[in-house]
Write a structure and sequence with these properties.
This protein has about 600 residues and is an alpha+beta fold. The protein is about 40% helix and about 15% strand. The chain is built from 21 helices and 18 strands. A hairpin with a 2-residue loop joins strand 11 (about 210-215) and strand 12 (about 220). The chain is globular.
């Protein structure tokens, strides 16, 4: 796991190599164990790499990694879970290895199979390969978007630059910050930018999940998809029992591969179904350490359920407590580390949890992200699965209102356009269209970015078994009737856990738990509320430019929770949290 940065200059252009060092220093947190550079001024290529050593901790894993003939150079961030199988296949083809790293497997896979190698990879990754003879740069991002990859044009049309985090671009003396107003609108309504390529900054883009891109002479080509989510097969008549067996066998293999590391591994355990299934499967392979989180000054506490699971699987269980003051004291730092705007409520507390894991010597953690989006874990899937005679546009508008937390807003046309495309891809299946939106837009641009930025900011690698492409493929092919039935969500996952005796029924039958800790503190913790009020109503912030001072004044002084119909804003606490993050982010990115 690492932080990558690089540029590819147009012919005749050059840059001070000290800028490579400066950019690398801004993302040192992603890889404090080793740093490396590669530069060819004549070719216009420059790479910087920060390494977080997880597999083969020796210098043999140093990056950028260069092939023996000097023709190929790899700058890789990620973890390849099927690397041992690929390594064996490559050795049978005559390739020889000098390390035990998955990084070398990526490099030799590219040498053997070219860009098509990404279709063989099961893991999380964002990487670049420079081919000196053809003078082309190849970039790729994993199918589920677990690892970020940002890029932008250098000023004056001088070339192309990419990085694991946007803040690396701020080190370039000629890079100028300008807020993307469309992205800002999406953030205020949805809590993140749902476009798969846009970011909070104009001119800065992200490579979409499951896409690759070639850059020639400093000019990026069009991103090309190498992963397309499959559609449920209406002719697949397999029984629930057969599906349970397939899911159990696949998850068992995937979780076992996610435990491979040369450093201590832990599992985040909330006591919910997803993290509990992962922990139970891991415990069948090895003695595991589980960590759960509690919140001071809040009635929300899942730790009793986590203890039930820990006792059931026999894990070495640990608990940490997060306090409101810890959150408010670290918010400004968090907005710097998270750099692209997204407002998941667990943003700050998750980072604090990873930090406490690292303090306990745990460098890798397994998490349960992805199961809800792929296996139908939210109430919105129930709505999508219901039979309806309403016109499609009206059903999409109702979905939009749920996502945006508003009665109406500015982003419905863009949302409708995207959903109509998904409906076309899924043959009119509204459940699958919602699953595509959840897993292709909300997940990689919001929840997974929370996981990546929170963990890497404290030099911890987070692995999500449910987001392995093998599990995603299986989930996408599963029809709605196997996932939501009689008010039960994630039915297949629950029945599998019961059939193979992974968990007690009080966990497998536990309803989906969804609660907003930050929202609770916004209303219940007076010190946190006072802090948020000062930041949000700051005259140098966004509240006046966006015309939201009356709403926020009503919220903080009158304790009004929302406006009644027909005004659009119905949930003030959501908006307040987003404005709080927006103002803090602007102080670090825009004002500076």
């Amino acid at each position: 796991m690492c932080g990558v940065f690089g540029w590819f200059l147009k012919s005749g252009q050059s840059r001070d190599s000290a800028q490579l060092i400066a950019a690398s220093e801004t993302i040192t947190h992603r890889g404090p164990d080793d740093r490396g550079y590669y530069s060819d001024e004549k070719q216009g290529i420059g790479f910087a790499h920060n390494r977080l050593s997880i597999i083969d901790l020796s210098s043999a894993g140093h990056q950028p990694m260069i092939s023996e003939d000097g023709n190929f150079v790899l700058n890789y961030n990620g973890e390849l879970y099927n690397f041992l199988q690929l390594k064996k296949e490559l050795e049978n083809l005559g390739r020889r290895f000098t390390s035990r790293t998955d990084s070398e497997v990526v490099l030799r896979s590219f040498i053997q199979w070219g860009p098509a190698c990404v279709e063989r990879f099961c893991g999380m990754f964002a990487f670049a390969v420079w081919s000196a003879k053809s003078r082309k740069l190849f970039l790729a991002r994993d199918p589920m978007g677990m690892k970020p990859l940002y890029y932008t044009a250098l000023p004056g049309d001088h070339g192309f630059v990419f990085a694991s985090e946007i803040k690396a671009f701020l080190s370039l003396p000629d890079f100028h910050v300008k807020v993307n107003r469309v992205a800002l609108s999406q953030f205020l309504e949805f809590g993140y930018t749902f476009d798969d390529h846009a970011t909070s900054l104009d001119g800065v883009y992200k490579l979409p999940p499951g896409h690759s891109m070639e850059v020639a002479d400093g000019v990026p080509g069009r991103p090309q998809a190498f992963f397309t989510p499959p559609v449920p097969d209406s002719y697949d008549r397999r029984t629930i029992e057969e599906r349970e067996e397939e899911l159990y066998a696949t998850l068992t293999d995937v979780v076992s591969q996610h435990l491979i590391a040369d450093v201590p591994v832990g599992l985040l355990l909330s006591g919910g179904l997803d993290s509990s299934v992962t922990a139970a499967l891991a415990a069948r392979h090895a003695q595991v350490t589980t960590i759960s989180m509690g919140f001071a000054e809040s009635s929300i506490d899942e730790r009793p359920y986590a203890r039930i699971v820990a006792e059931h699987i026999g894990s070495d269980h640990r608990e940490v407590t997060i306090h409101p003051k810890e959150v408010s004291d670290s918010l400004e730092d968090v907005t710097w580390y998270f750099d692209d705007l997204f407002a998941d409520w667990g943003t700050v507390s998750t980072r604090l949890l990873y930090k406490k894991c690292r303090e306990q010597g745990i460098k890798v953690v397994l998490v349960g992200e992805g199961a809800d989006e792929l296996f139908g874990g939210y109430t919105i899937f129930d709505v999508a699965h219901q039979k309806s005679n309403w016109p499609v546009s009206w059903r999409l508008f109702q979905l939009y209102r749920r996502y945006a937390g508003r009665r109406y807003g500015t982003q419905f046309p863009q949302f409708r356009l995207l959903m109509n495309r998904y409906l076309k891809q899924s043959g009119g299946d509204m459940f699958h269209a919602v699953r595509l939106f959840e897993s292709r837009n909300q997940l990689p641009n919001n929840y997974v970015m929370k996981v990546d930025k929170a963990s890497m900011s404290v030099s911890v690698e987070a692995r999500a078994p449910f987001l392995d492409r093998r599990i995603a493929d299986l989930a996408y092919k599963t029809p709605a009737d196997c996932l939501v039935a009689d008010g039960t969500n994630k039915a297949l996952l629950r029945s599998m856990a019961e059939r193979f005796q992974l968990l007690p029924r009080e966990i497998t039958q536990r309803p989906k738990f969804g609660a907003s800790i930050a929202a609770s503190w916004m209303d219940d913790s007076q010190p946190f509320r006072d802090y948020a009020r000062r930041v949000i109503l700051d005259g140098d912030g966004w509240v006046d430019e966006l015309g939201l001072r009356p709403a926020m004044t009503d919220y903080f002084t009158g304790k009004r929770q929302g406006y009644s119909f027909p005004r659009s804003i119905s949930v003030f606490s959501n908006l307040a949290w987003r404005l709080l993050l927006l103002n803090l982010w602007s102080r670090r990115y825009v004002t500076a």
